[in-house]
Write a structure and sequence with these properties.
Elements lengths: L7 E5 L5 E2 L14 E5 L3 E10 L5 H4 L4 E8 L4 E6 L8 E9 L2 E8 L4
Parallel strand pairs: 6-8
Antiparallel strand pairs: 1-2, 1-3, 4-5, 4-7, 5-6, 7-8
Length: about 110
């Protein structure tokens, strides 16, 4: 199982910009000092998909399952699992869950701020 928390995201030490894609340098200021920090997990669902055809036997046992893209308050977009009742535009909170011996991200509904 991976030990890195799914909400650990790189952030520029110089300007504070968050980066979900592990860059070499900050595209906002050009800084090359990036550190891992824990994001809040708070955000809004911008896309949702229900998976019926899983990539392998382990995931097939879990079908159907819901995947969402969430725009976090840190202005990065992450993909994670969610309950089937989650809708686009809904405010959610992400946390780590273990699925198939992997530490993954799961979003749950929350009240708007």
């Amino acid at each position: 199982m991976s030990t890195q928390h799914p909400l650990d995201i790189q952030r520029c030490d110089h300007c504070g910009t968050w980066w979900a894609l592990r860059p070499y340098a900050c595209a906002s200021c050009g800084g090359t000092t990036l550190s891992w920090q824990r994001a809040t997990g708070e955000g809004v669902v911008i896309a949702r998909s229900e998976v019926h055809r899983a990539p392998d036997a382990q995931w097939k046992a879990l079908t159907p399952y819901t995947l969402v893209l969430v725009k976090l308050h840190e202005h990065v977009t992450l993909m994670g699992h969610a309950d089937a009742t989650i809708t686009v535009g809904q405010h959610v909170h992400g946390h780590a869950v273990e699925i198939n011996s992997r530490l993954l991200l799961k979003f749950e509904a929350r009240s708007p701020p």
